[in-house]
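ok so i was messing around last nite and threw this chain in just to see what happens. nothing serious, just curious
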Amino acid sequence: MTKRTKRTVSAAIIALFFGLWELAAGFEGARSALLPPFSRVLVNLYVLFRTRSLAVHIGISLYRVSAGIVLGALFGVPLGFLLGTAREKLGVCLGALWGLLAQVNPFLLYHVLISFLGIGETVKISILSWGCLWPVVFNTAGGVENIDRTLLKAGRAFGGGKGSLFFTILLPATAPRICGGIRIAAGYALLMLTASEILGARSGLGWLVLTEQVYFRIVNLFSIVLITALLGVSLDACLAFIQKKLIPYELEGYVNSSEN
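result:
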């Protein structure tokens, strides 16, 4: 199936979904209850942008998500390389420790972090960074472990030092996996964003969701949920575009010949 065909099929499925939404909302009782028509949600989005500071809340949420992703990547990539290049016994210890830490629910840390950081932007970004950290760590480590050791031996044979091997072999070979980890982390960040803003914020899309739910403004609630979904799709598309421009090569199906 060509890329153009895939895009056509995807667009058709999305259009079908929204069409079914519109039809379902037209049934007796649905319009006035919990499912507003999709067309009404679209019109309401326009009104929200015109009459309320929705764009400001979107910008605040994007700032928090971006900060969480960037911090998660800044710490996750070095930790991933450390795990992937560690000697066998140390690697087992680090893998067990970080595997345990990765299972800690970020929101269980929220109340602990409040004691140290207070209620503010720092604690929200810290929660998002914690959730973004581990996909980057384990994807980076996996990329390092799958590098063909023959390439490293050849690099050393040609007199390459540790710095040269890192920038000419290790980093280029693991870059696709690192980018994949960052894209996964971005998805986690958006999932955690709403909850973190509901827990203690007076701005952002999560806070708006809570406010509209409290006042039972269902159309506004659906509009904000739709915006959040569109942000997720847009963010992933932007990261995929950046990956394609910076890393035009693919290592899918790459075989580690040193294991043969």
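not much to say yet. Residues 73 and 136 are 6 Å apart (CA to CA).
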